[in-house]
Amino acid sequence: MRFVRCKTTSGYEAMILTPEQAYAVLLNLQEPERTLTLLAAGTGLRISECLGLQWQDVNFADAIIHVRRTWTCGRVGLPKSKASKGPVPLHPLLSEFMFRWKEQTPYSERGNWVFPSFRLNGKQPRVANMLVEDYLRPAAVKAGVLASRWDDKGRLIDDDPRRFGFHNLRHSLASFLIRIKTDPKTVQTLLRHSDVKLTLQFYTHAISDDRMAAAGAMLVAILSHSADKSGLKAD
């Protein structure tokens, strides 16, 4: 039963990051965590889908990311729904980061994991909760997105009780696209919502140019700050 997925409801209310906050978080990350976080923030991919990517799923020529599998609970699985299997636009801004990471990683063959565990010699992807605990949440604390305090030894202590992880980036993308008045059907298709009611009501095949523009809007908003600040670059 540990690996059975059940639909449920919860009172959880996700924190929403602005593009400025997302940029500040990225500045406090190194590779490959920076590219992984930008991938989640700019596409709305679930972290299990990000970690399930292999290089054969990233089509640089056609600017598409194919979602074919997930990585969760130490196992390879299938996407949650038919809508979840939909391809995701690979915007040129994100493509640059992904391509540079492909050049850096020692595991760059078609069947290799995009975000592999170096401890396990690339045989498995990274572990989501460890990525949050060791990298994403500390970066959010340093960026001032989460509350913190300095202890008597000059160390920054995370004392924010709020839940924070990669799923906040998916919620933030949806909130941002709606706020800039992106067509709801385009948002529905881009985020590949798995909820049956949302899928039946909104799921259509949006024009590919519209989807690419939607995928790029958050990336442009995040990365535009590098023009006048100490730079966030793909390398």
Brief rundown of the structure:
The chain has 235 residues and is mainly alpha-helical.
How would you describe what is shown here?
By secondary structure, this protein is mainly alpha-helical. It has a single domain (19-225), classed as Intergrase catalytic core (hpI Integrase, Chain A). It is 41% helix and 8% strand. It has helices at 19-27, 33-43, 47-51, 92-104, 128-142, 167-179, 184-191, 196-202, 208-223; strands at 58-59, 64-65, 70-72, 75-77, 88-89, 148-150, 156-158. The protein has a three-stranded antiparallel beta sheet. Strands 3-4 form a two-stranded antiparallel ribbon. A hairpin with a 2-residue loop joins β3 and β4. α2 runs antiparallel to α4, α2 crosses α6 (167-179) and α2 packs across α9 (208-223). The longest helix has 16 residues, at 208-223. The radius of gyration is 17 Å and the shape is globular. The termini are far apart. Residues 199-207 have low confidence and may be disordered.
